[in-house]
């Protein structure tokens, strides 16, 4: 379950993301045999957080902070208003009715599966975007969300939007900056919480703030020094909003991995978030 201090995203993040990042395609599901060369090429590209095993680890770590659980696949059906001014928060990455990404998700789901149980809420989702209002959503939206979560197409839609808006842009920027799997995860976690809008606490401006203190490896900097500067900037951004004032997802998780020199995010992993201990063997 989400807690009020565990969730945030820049309002209208879906609208604010750069067109180039929004256009990042999602890899098709793997198919059996004959395309061995293509499969090999895909595997070759997955050299960081986009490696399937590393991606699953990333989802577990984010879920430990967002849901106090490593079982991220149990969160497709999750939905509640946590009182953070962003309306309903739901699904595997905390899509919000007030930040645009929930609207984008339901629009995409409706393209894939017209007439689904959530399609009738699209007019209301458009109206409440940018607010914490439930107008047009209550009283049955939460029930219908849970019902939709039983549909494999809706789960795929959540995966698609997570990758398009958050995961793929984070990995792309991480590889561009020359950081390894841990650095790519740090970027991902930052985009999940802050979005990539134009305000001072967005991912792109957290990165810009870090650039005033250090350089990423791609610019000749030391990776550990750069990642420490990025985390310093991230903590600053978190402290700008009361809902983020607990910075343990950085202090007792990401910094722990960094201090150990675990730049590839190799298991076993031990960390704490909000006082809870977690382990991936």
Automatic annotation (TrEMBL):
Pfam families: Glyco_hydro_46. Residues 1-30 form the signal peptide. It comes from Streptomyces cirratus. This is Chitosanase. It comes from the Bacteria. The keyword Ribosomal protein does not apply. It catalyses: Endohydrolysis of beta-(1->4)-linkages between D-glucosamine residues in a partly acetylated chitosan. Keywords: Glycosidase, Hydrolase, Secreted, Signal. InterPro entries: Glyco_hydro_46 (IPR000400), Glyco_hydro_46_N (IPR023099), Lysozyme-like_dom_sf (IPR023346). Aids in the defense against invading fungal pathogens by degrading their cell wall chitosan. It is found in: Secreted. Belongs to the glycosyl hydrolase 46 family. Its EC number is 3.2.1.132. The keyword Hydrolase applies.
């Amino acid at each position: 379950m989400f807690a009020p201090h565990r969730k945030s995203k820049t309002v209208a993040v879906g609208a604010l993301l750069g067109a180039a990042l929004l256009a990042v395609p999602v890899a098709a599901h793997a198919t059996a045999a004959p395309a061995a060369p293509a499969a090999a090429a895909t595997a070759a590209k997955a050299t960081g957080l986009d490696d399937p095993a590393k991606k699953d680890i990333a989802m577990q770590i984010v879920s430990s902070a967002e849901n106090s659980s490593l079982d991220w696949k149990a969160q497709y059906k999750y939905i509640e208003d946590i009182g953070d001014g962003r309306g309903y928060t739901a699904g595997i990455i905390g899509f919000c009715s007030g930040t645009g990404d929930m609207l984008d998700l339901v629009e995409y789901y409706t393209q894939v599966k017209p007439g689904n149980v959530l399609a009738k809420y699209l007019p209301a989702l458009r109206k409440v975007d940018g607010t914490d209002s439930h107008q047009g959503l209550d009283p049955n939206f939460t029930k219908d969300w849970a019902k939709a979560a039983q549909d494999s197409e809706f789960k795929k839609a959540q995966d698609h939007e997570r990758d398009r808006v958050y995961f793929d842009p984070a990995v792309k920027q991480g590889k561009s900056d020359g950081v390894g799997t841990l650095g790519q995860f740090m970027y991902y976690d930052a985009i999940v919480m802050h979005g990539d809008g134009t305000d001072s606490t967005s991912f792109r401006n957290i990165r810009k703030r870090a650039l005033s203190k250090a350089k990423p490896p791609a610019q000749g900097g030391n990776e550990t020094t750069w990642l420490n500067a990025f985390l310093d900037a991230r903590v600053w951004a978190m402290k700008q909003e009361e809902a983020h004032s607990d910075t343990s997802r950085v202090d007792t998780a990401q910094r722990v991995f960094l201090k150990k020199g675990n730049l590839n995010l190799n298991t076993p992993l031990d960390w704490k978030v909000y006082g809870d201990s977690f382990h991936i063997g």
